[in-house]
């Protein structure tokens, strides 16, 4: 039995280090209720936009791909929703990921008649600050810019109504 105790005494400090380290991890994603990370971006039209410009307004951030079936299917839903509620303060921004060239994004935006700002995230900094790891992802922000939802995949009008109706009705 002396070998067993010796091994336990050697493993116990290692086990304590592992358990202590687990509690100190930084979360790998933002949580509902967290403040939205600030950002500034230039739209395809050359307009500078920052999240701070939209203070007091609900915001939908859509991290999208031009060849994504969900993005093509629900962009008309977002276009219609934006047209209905822009006057009530709703803001929508499409953000193209790192590695997609501007011409491809311009073609996508033109083909789908996107009425709200579309921008590039050429360094991936915005997506990283929102911990976006899969696309498409839609982040919905309250008027005080707290995260109220992070939706992976397509977005329906029913979801938009459920999340945004308190702010746009």
Kindly describe this structure.
This protein has a single domain (32-168), classed as Glutaredoxin. Helices cover 39% and strands 18% of the residues. It has helices at 2-23, 69-85, 102-111, 125-129, 157-168; strands at residues 40-42, 48-50, 59-63, 91-96, 118-120, 137-141, 147-152. Strands 5-4-3-6-7 form a 5-stranded mixed sheet, covered by helices on one side. The chain starts with a helix and ends with a helix. Mean pLDDT is 87; it is low at 4-26.
CATH topology: Glutaredoxin
- Sheet with the most strands: spatial strand order: 5-4-3-6-7
Sketch the topology as an H/E string, one letter per element.
HEEEHEHEHEEH
Summing up helix and strand content along with how strands pair, one would put the structural category as alpha/beta
**Span between N and C termini?**
73 Å
Helix content: 25-40%
Number of helical stretches of at least 4 residues: 5
Q: Major β-sheet, in short?
A: 5 strands, mixed
Residue windows where pLDDT falls under 50 for at least 5 positions:
4-26
Shape: globular
Strand content: 15-25%
| CATH C-level | Alpha Beta
User: What is the oligomeric state here?
Assistant: single chain
Count of DSSP strands: 7
How many domains make up the 3D coordinates?
Answer: 1
Mean model confidence by pLDDT: 87
The radius of gyration computed from the alpha-carbon positions, rounded to a whole number of angstroms, is: 21 Å
Architecture, CATH level 2? 3-Layer(aba) Sandwich
CATH superfamily: Glutaredoxin
């Amino acid at each position: 039995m002396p070998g067993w105790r010796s091994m336990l005494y050697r493993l116990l400090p290692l086990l304590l280090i592992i358990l202590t380290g687990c509690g100190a991890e930084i979360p790998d994603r933002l949580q509902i209720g967290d403040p939205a990370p600030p950002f500034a971006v230039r739209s395809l039209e050359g307009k500078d936009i920052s999240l701070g410009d939209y203070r007091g307004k609900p915001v939908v951030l859509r991290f999208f791909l031009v060849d994504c079936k969900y993005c093509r299917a629900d962009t008309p839903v977002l276009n219609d929703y934006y047209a209905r509620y822009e006057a009530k303060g709703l803001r929508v921004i499409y953000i193209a990921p790192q590695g997609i060239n501007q011409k491809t994004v311009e073609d996508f935006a033109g083909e789908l008649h996107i009425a709200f700002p579309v921008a590039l995230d050429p360094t991936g900094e915005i997506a990283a600050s929102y911990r976006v790891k899969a696309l498409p992802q839609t982040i919905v922000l309250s008027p005080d810019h707290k995260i109220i939802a992070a939706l992976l995949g397509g977005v329906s009008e029913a979801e938009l109504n459920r999340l945004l109706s308190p702010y746009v009705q």
